[in-house]
Amino acid sequence: MKRKDLFREGFKSVFQFTFTKADELTEAIKEVWEDEKTPKPKPSHKSKRPSDKEKSVNKQTTVRKRKTRMFQTLSQPPGASPDFYSLCTGCNECIFSCPYAVLFPVTIPESGKIFPHLDPNAKACHLCTDWPCISVCPEQALLPYELSGEKPNFGKAKAITEHCINEKTGESTCNVCFVTCPIEKTVKFKGNLPVFTSSSCTGCGLCVESCPSFPKAIQIKFKK
User: For the 4Fe-4S ferredoxin-type domain, which residue ranges apply (predicted)?
Assistant: First the structure.
């Protein structure tokens, strides 16, 4: 075969292959186009995707529930009366009077009202002898313990033994919780690990605040 004929046959084969593939591609595009033009059944109500507005509402609801759960893990101020939420006006006088800045305002999402609370796991109540937060309350939302016959009860201390230094060392290395507890005979030791007497524990959080472990080896469990 002559060189000229060889090139002619080669180009002919290439072009024939190209045209064949082009025809196949054209047919495939036609099929896709026809499929797109075919009307599809409308999705049922159950499978309807939420609109942006619905997503926003659902998101707000989730945040509101989360805030409510957070609010339930806090403690009321010292001397809180049984009618604390109906008597408290949110004046914040107790917050300003606390010498240790333990109290802080918390907004209830459902009503938008503001009430003072404390979190003894974050900052301890020092159980002041004169209770300035109680004496400054103008609405008797906080009552002196002498009048109510109650005692401070923010929760109960519980040891998290796996975080305790004594558990890690196997020795009686630390007794800081025993030293800092203001209530006598509340902290005892079983072996080298602390045990808290729930009947006398006030849940003030001084043991948590002074605990040198990280994470903390003590946690205040809130009363329900």
Answer: 78-108, 114-147, 192-223
Over the stretch 158-214, which tens digit does the pLDDT of each residue have? Answer: 999 999 999 999 999 999 999 999 999 999 999 999 999 999 999 999 999 999 999
Yes or no: say if 177 and 207 are a contact pair by the CB < 8 Å rule.
yes
Alpha helix (H) residue ranges in 149-210: 165-169, 176-180, 206-210
Q: How confident is the model at residue 215 (pLDDT cuts 50, 70, 90)?
A: very high
- What is the reported pLDDT for 149? 84
> Per the structure block, which two tokens stand in for 49?
């995707």
Residue spans of the domains in the chain: they are 63-150, 153-224
CA distance 103 to 142: 13
Write out the H or E segment, with its range, that includes residue 195.
strand 193-196
Q: Which CATH class is domain 63-150?
A: alpha beta
Structure tokens at 91: 């004046």
Q: Do domains 63-150 and 153-224 have the same CATH topology?
A: yes
Q: Considering the domain 153-224 in this protein, what is its CATH number?
A: 3.30.70.20
- State the chain's maximal CA–CA distance in angstroms: 121
What's the pLDDT band for 223 if we cut at 50, 70, 90? low
pTM of the model: 0.66
H or E, element range at 53: helix 52-72
CA distance 139 to 159: 37
Q: Which amino acid is at 174?
A: C
d(CA 174, CA 91): 42
Paired with 106 in beta bridges are: 115
pLDDT of residue 75: 92
